[in-house]
Specification:
The complex is a heterodimer of chains A (102) and B (572). With 102 residues, chain A is mostly helical. In chain A, 85% of the residues lie in helices and 0% in strands. Chain A has helices at residues 3-11, 13-46, 48-52, 63-101. In chain A, helix 2 runs antiparallel to helix 4. Chain A starts with a helix and ends with a helix. Chain B has 572 residues and is mainly α. Chain B has helices spanning 2-17, 21-31, 41-63, 68-73, 80-91, 94-107, 110-119, 121-136, 141-145, 151-185, 189-237, 242-259, 264-272, 284-297, 302-305, 314-345, 366-415, 421-445, 451-464, 466-475, 481-501, 503-507, 523-540, 544-551, 553-562. The chains are: A mainly alpha (102), B mainly alpha (572). Chains A and B meet through helix 1, helix 2, helix 3 and helix 4 of A and helix 7, helix 8, helix 12, helix 14 and helix 16 of B.
Chain lengths: 102, 572
């Protein structure tokens, strides 16, 4: 890529904003995902009984809603990223590309 | 002795966990099998039907595959939704399906822990890499990793690491496929492996990525459909009450425990144990290390990364991951219902058990028997054919990524720079043939090996080599060619050495007393070695090349963030 183009894009405040916002969102969501998963792994490693504890007076155990909750959380957190990216980042990217082409 | 106490749960865990999980247990099942399974004609007919369908897809794809872009990335015209299905297809191998449902059938809740481990890598791949991959890459992940670096060394590392990952994954799939066919259709093992090899070569040689993708999509839809049908039938029998399903499963397990001579109190405890975690995790280091291999290995598997170049732009790449996560998550929910359904409907039905009360055809056949229990012979045939098709599709994807590592990364970039596209494609096709023959031979040689272990090695290798190199080259300006190459090799080699020293090889294969490396997975150590080495070598790198590498970061960054200048989807 031509270096003037790179310099022009980099000088664009919108580019800096896009980069900062996306990076921030990505790391926050990554941290959330890691905390959730390793929290679950720690529960399995250190407190198996809690996950096996019955709930609702039947055989259903606490581990089942927690486990399914993590599956749903994984899908939802991915969707949150896509939703934010579609709403904010694509428009910004388009503007940056247009301004760079001028 | 620590190693020996660890070994049993480790082998069991590996066996249940990995894509080809069942294969290890298949091996055991086959060895212990006195009577061979009767030939299942319905299954064979379904299987033949599926093969005919996939060959038709290949024929169609072949007429549209002319350029390198067609061959490697289906011309870049796959939509996000289609690509999501294909990625899910790559991930939902027969063994995820058979292996995880079998694990739930045996131990209940533990199976869910494995499923979750497989799923959580996707958001990470999405947040940190997916869009950047699409914006920077063309055909292989090495295009991305070497974007601002000196091409030959990085390409050589990428080809080495890709081939290592692909080899272990491929052998495991071949062995698993051979055992599955032998089990289902009563064919000799060698023939079974050869059939897989031939079909896979046909898909890749003639249809390239377009055929591979559509075979994968077809299979993913059939697998999701079949698994949904089974789950609905199971739930319908329970009046759509999960509580009833779990209660009956606990009852069946309790009755089985009583039958083995346990006191009613102990039997009740045994029955109840399927509702919580069992022996999955013994020591926290193994747990975390294993979780890391799964989570980050996903983001380093070359055949998965390659799929990001089949979509036209970053938005579609994003959509691909979301759809893949949705389908994979949904699939794991289904396997959970199928596993518990099998406890209720299969474990208590003498029709599916042998004289000793064990599952006919081996423990991994739980889902297959459940198919028969809820849908009769025709549905059984369908599910068997889908299970086999799954392996074919995964093997084709792996072969394609191995072939592109040789033709695109080594041949066209290192050995014969600027080679005409025609020659590059020819090399790719020759490599496919060689890899196919190689895979069949190795599949035969490794028939008795613990293949689950080999897949785990593939995941750990991907997490220790490709992932750190890719991540740091994308995110860290200071990373240099020398750092990436030295660190990448250090990670991969550390991973290989620790694997050899671990109980699964050192004790089980080489018959030493105790393992030198006692943990299940080397990932936590080999990943650390890779990251620290890349960092250290990079900051100490004062070569002229290092200055070029660092100076290239801004241009890389602009393109990875905005897609300006990215490879357009080639249309023609």
């Amino acid at each position: 890529m031509a270096s003037e183009l790179v310099a022009r894009v980099q000088a664009n405040p919108k580019y800096r904003e896009l980069k900062a916002r996306r990076t921030r969102l990505a790391w926050i969501l990554t941290a959330l995902m890691l905390a959730t998963y390793y929290g679950y792994v720690s529960l399995i490693a250190f407190d198996k009984d809690l996950l096996a504890a019955p709930i609702g007076g039947g055989v259903m155990s606490l581990g089942i809603p927690i486990g399914f909750g993590i599956i749903v959380f994984t899908v939802v957190i991915t969707a949150v990223y896509v939703w934010r990216a579609n709403a904010e980042f694509d428009a910004l990217t388009k503007q940056i590309a247009e301004e760079a082409a001028q | 002795m620590k190693a020996s106490t660890l070994k049993a749960p480790i082998v069991k865990m590996l066996a249940a966990l990995f894509v080809l999980a069942p294969a290890a247990a298949f091996a055991a099942a086959i060895e212990g099998q006195a009577v061979q399974q009767p030939t299942n004609w319905t299954a064979i007919a379904m299987f033949a039907g599926f093969v005919a369908l996939t060959l038709a897809i290949t024929r169609w794809a072949a007429t549209r595959t002319h350029t390198a872009a067609d061959f490697y990335t289906a011309g870049g015209h796959v939509t996000g939704f289609q690509n999501g299905l294909a990625i899910a297809g790559d991930y939902m191998s027969a063994a995820s399906f058979l292996g995880i449902s079998a694990q739930i059938f045996a131990d209940g809740y533990d199976g869910l822990i494995y499923s979750i481990g497989f799923l959580v890598g996707w958001p990470i791949l999405m947040f940190l890499m997916a869009e950047k991959l699409r914006n920077l890459g063309k055909y292989t992940f090495a295009d991305v990793a070497s974007f601002r670096f000196a091409q030959p060394p990085v390409r050589m590392f990428a080809a080495f690491s890709t081939l290592a990952v692909v080899a272990f994954y491929l052998i495991a799939q071949m062995v698993g496929a051979g055992q599955l066919i032998k089990l289902l259709f009563g064919l000799p093992y060698g023939y079974a492996v050869a059939i897989v090899g031939l079909l896979m070569m046909a898909y890749v040689l003639f249809g390239g990525m377009r055929a591979t993708t559509w075979v994968q999509i077809t299979k993913a839809v059939m697998l999701l459909g079949g698994a949904s049908f089974m789950s609905i039938m199971v739930l319908a029998k329970m009046g759509f009450s999960p509580e009833a399903l779990f209660a009956q499963a606990v009852q069946v397990k309790t009755d089985l425990a009583v039958a083995t001579g346990l006191s009613p109190e102990d039997a009740a405890v045994r029955g109840r144990s399927i509702m919580g975690p069992g022996n999955f995790i013994k020591d926290p280091i193994s747990a975390i290390s294993f979780g890391m291999a799964l989570m980050f290995g996903t983001a380093g598997l070359p055949h998965i990364l390659m799929r990001f170049f089949t979509v036209p732009n970053a938005q579609e790449a994003r959509k691909s991951v979301l759809w893949a996560t949705v389908w994979i998550g949904y699939f794991y929910v289904l396997t959970f219902i199928i596993g518990f359904g099998a406890i209720v409907l299969v474990a208590s039905n003498p029709q599916y058990l042998d004289a000793a009360g064990a599952l006919r055809g081996g423990g991994n056949m739980a889902a297959i028997h459940l198919a028969s229990a809820v849908g009769g012979d025709v549905f059984l045939g369908f599910i068997s054919a889908v299970a086999f098709a799954t392996i074919l599709a995964v093997v084709a994807g792996l072969t394609l990524s191995g072939a592109s590592a040789i033709s695109h990364d080594l041949y066209a970039t290192v050995f014969r720079r600027g080679a005409p596209e025609k020659d590059e494609l020819r090399v790719s096709r020759i490599t496919t043939l060689v890899l196919g023959v190689f895979a069949v031979l190795l599949g035969i040689v490794f028939e008795k090996q613990n293949v689950a272990f080999m897949v785990s090695l593939a995941f750990a290798l991907a997490a220790s080599g490709n992932f750190p190199v890719l991540l740091l080259s994308l995110l860290w300006k200071g990373c240099t060619t020398r750092g990436a190459v030295v660190g990448g090799f250090a990670g991969v080699i550390t991973c290989l050495v620790l694997m050899i020293l671990s109980p699964a090889i050192w004790v089980a294969v080489l018959h030493h007393e105790a393992a030198i490396f006692p943990y299940t997975s080397p990932a936590i150590f080999s990943m650390a070695v890779a990251f620290v080495t890349i960092w250290l070598v990079s900051i100490l790198d004062r070569s002229p090349r290092a200055a070029v590498d660092r100076a290239g970061f801004d241009a890389q960054s602009v393109r990875s963030e905005t897609g300006i200048g990215a490879s357009e989807a080639s249309s023609h």
